């Protein structure tokens, strides 16, 4: 995304948190609790402690061989001990046993796990995901010291989605860097990698139907297949986004005849003319080609900042053909915005036809605007209070509230640009929130419009993440970006896995340093 309603969002967020900082301050970490990032939900101390054997075995049950082998290799890397993976269920002192089964005291989620610390270290996950997360917590603990006090950890996530978004449409990021981020995500129990694959500086997928739109720097289809397989090893799902009908510069450069033109002759390099039937042919071709490439449950349609033209917010009135198309397609009472809402429903139908669930950004959804409603199954990523209509930014706009969208049947992801965004370059980089501030005053119930979801509403909140935007790709290299998001990503992991927090920010930062980065 490009120029955001930074001032509006920052003011709203600061006002919302100013009166509630004391209620959000985290308690000091309870003495003796195993120290991990993110912190564990429940700890029951007692019994014999565990000491990793000099020649330890990771014994594993059915379906866990790959997870056990990866864990054994990582343990050897961070501790220097000789650790091997071996099928089995009964270990000697100093061994580790990895299994799946019921996790007492945890909610029903495949990501729950339990660590029983005694003469052996018994790791149990509800399913493969939970077992993997048990190995990540054990890896962090044994990295700090190879002897652990006796007791039982029971742990599970607060939110279903704990994500990282990378804007590879503006700044291409090599596959090796993406793999490194996937390893980092797995280490921190983040589970959704959102790839923003098309924007100002390129369409990053290799297209066979439309080779003319493929950027020089791109991912081949085999690159994507390999990346999806690699991510699955770390319990990370990849969600693709190809942004329609705005942010299409990388596509429209090869199709200038489809660019949106105003009545005065102003041409948008970013927006496609949704009144032109041939625009739908091109978008359908792209969706049909790439939807089967990604096996995950979601496809992100974008649908943000359609009428944002550089630093200028346009009005539908400047494009009379859009209003004419809306009335011809949806009836004489239709408003111009109905053409935009209809496009969302059109794209959502194609996504559903491929067995996936559609997602969009929220800024095009206005209170009382248009005659059409978008499908209730569409997940809305809520980043901005300001809508897309006639007033210039910054603007306290009339975008539908999180509560309104939930009441209409939508699930949300809290993508509040204050403080979930890390922007590399461009005017919105000034809105990046320092990790200590995000850690102390924000959690995924607090949205950018200043509202906080009730407990019942929050059951419709999928979670949140860190959103990395490369508005100016000349400012930071991909490696510099990866280094810069080290602490923001750890804070994201903590806030989305859920309470209790690991003490003050200074304590959290010290712990984050102690657990380090995942071994390659």
- Helix/strand class: alpha/beta
Helix segment tally: 17
Shape: elongated
- Percentage of helical residues? 25-40%
Low-confidence stretches: 1-30, 388-396
Major sheet strand order: 10-11-15-18-21-22-23-25
Strand content: 15-25%
Mean pLDDT: 91
Major β-sheet profile: 8 strands, parallel, barrel
Keywords:
eight-stranded parallel β-barrel; disordered N terminus; alpha/beta; 17 helices; 520 residues; 25 strands; 22% strand; 33% helix; seven-stranded mixed beta sheet
Protein model, in words:
The protein is α/β, with parallel strands linked by helices and 520 residues long. Helices cover 33% and strands 22% of the residues. It has 17 helices and 25 strands. Helix 5 packs parallel to helix 6 (221-233). It is elongated.
Quick rundown:
It is built from 17 helices and 25 strands. It is of the alpha/beta class and 520 residues long. The strands form six sheets. The chain has an eight-stranded parallel β-barrel. Strands 1-9-6-7-5-3-4 form a seven-stranded mixed β-sheet, with helices on one face. Strands 12-13-14 form a three-stranded mixed β-sheet.
Write the layout of secondary structure elements.
Layout: H1 6-18, H2 21-24, E1 42-45, E2 50-51, E3 55-60, H3 65-79, E4 82-87, E5 96-100, E6 113-117, E7 121-125, H4 128-144, E8 147-148, E9 151-155, E10 161-166, H5 175-187, E11 192-196, E12 198-199, E13 202-205, E14 214-219, H6 221-233, E15 237-244, H7 249-252, E16 259-261, E17 267-272, H8 277-290, E18 298-302, E19 308-309, E20 312-313, H9 320-330, H10 336-353, E21 357-361, E22 379-382, H11 402-407, E23 412-414, H12 417-420, E24 421-423, H13 435-441, H14 455-458, E25 461-469, H15 478-484, H16 486-497, H17 505-515
């Amino acid at each position: 995304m490009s120029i955001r309603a930074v001032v509006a969002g920052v003011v709203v967020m600061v006002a919302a948190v100013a009166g509630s900082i004391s209620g959000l301050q985290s308690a000091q970490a309870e003495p003796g609790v195993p120290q991990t990032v993110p912190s564990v939900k429940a700890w029951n101390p007692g019994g014999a402690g565990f000491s990793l054997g000099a020649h330890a075995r990771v014994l594993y049950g059915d379906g866990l061989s790959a997870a056990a082998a990866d864990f054994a290799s990582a343990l050897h890397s961070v501790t220097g001990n000789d650790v091997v993976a071996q099928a089995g269920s009964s270990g000697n002192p100093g061994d580790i046993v990895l299994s799946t089964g019921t996790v007492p005291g945890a909610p029903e989620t495949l990501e729950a796990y339990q660590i029983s610390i005694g003469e052996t270290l018994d790791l149990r996950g509800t399913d493969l995901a939970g077992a993997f997360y048990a190995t990540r917590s054990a890896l962090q603990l044994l990295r700090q010291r190879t002897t652990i006090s006796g007791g039982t950890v029971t742990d599970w996530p607060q939110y279903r989605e704990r994500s990282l978004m990378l804007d590879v449409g503006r700044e291409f990021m090599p596959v090796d860097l993406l793999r490194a981020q996937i390893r980092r995500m797995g280490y921190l129990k983040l589970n959704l990698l959102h790839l923003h694959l098309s924007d100002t500086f390129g369409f990053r997928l290799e297209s066979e139907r439309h080779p003319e739109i493929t950027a020089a720097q791109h991912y081949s289809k085999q690159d994507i297949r390999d990346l999806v397989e690699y991510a699955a090893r770390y319990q990370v799902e990849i969600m693709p986004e190809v942004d329609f009908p705005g942010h299409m510069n990388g596509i429209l450069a090869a199709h200038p005849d489809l660019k949106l033109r105003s009545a005065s002759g102003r041409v948008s390099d970013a927006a496609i003319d949704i009144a032109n039937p041939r625009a739908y042919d091109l978008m359908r071709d792209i969706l049909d080609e790439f939807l089967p490439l990604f096996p995950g449950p979601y496809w992100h349609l974008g649908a943000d900042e359609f009428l944002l033209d550089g630093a200028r917010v346009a009005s539908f009135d400047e494009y009379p053909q859009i209003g004419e198309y809306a009335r011809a397609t949806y009836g004489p009472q239709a408003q111009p915005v109905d053409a935009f809402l209809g496009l969302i429903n059109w794209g959502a139908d194609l996504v559903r036809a491929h067995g996936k669930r559609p997602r969009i950004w929220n800024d095009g959804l206005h209170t009382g605007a248009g005659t059409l409603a978008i499908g209730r199954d569409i997940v809305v990523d809520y980043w901005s209070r300001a809508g897309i209509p006639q007033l210039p930014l910054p603007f306290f706009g009339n975008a539908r509230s999180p509560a309104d969208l939930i009441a209409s049947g939508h699930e949300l992801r809290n993508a509040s640009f204050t403080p979930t965004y890390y922007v590399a370059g461009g005017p919105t980089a000034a809105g990046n929130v320092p990790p200590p501030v995000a850690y102390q005053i924000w959690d995924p119930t607090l949205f950018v419009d200043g509202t906080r979801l009730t407990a019942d509403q929050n059951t419709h909140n999928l979670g949140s993440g860190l959103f990395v935007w490369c508005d100016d790709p000349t400012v930071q290299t991909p490696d510099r970006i990866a280094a810069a998001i080290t602490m923001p990503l750890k804070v994201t992991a903590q806030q989305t896995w859920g309470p209790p927090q690991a003490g003050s920010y200074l304590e959290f930062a010290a712990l984050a340093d102690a657990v380090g980065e995942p071994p390659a």
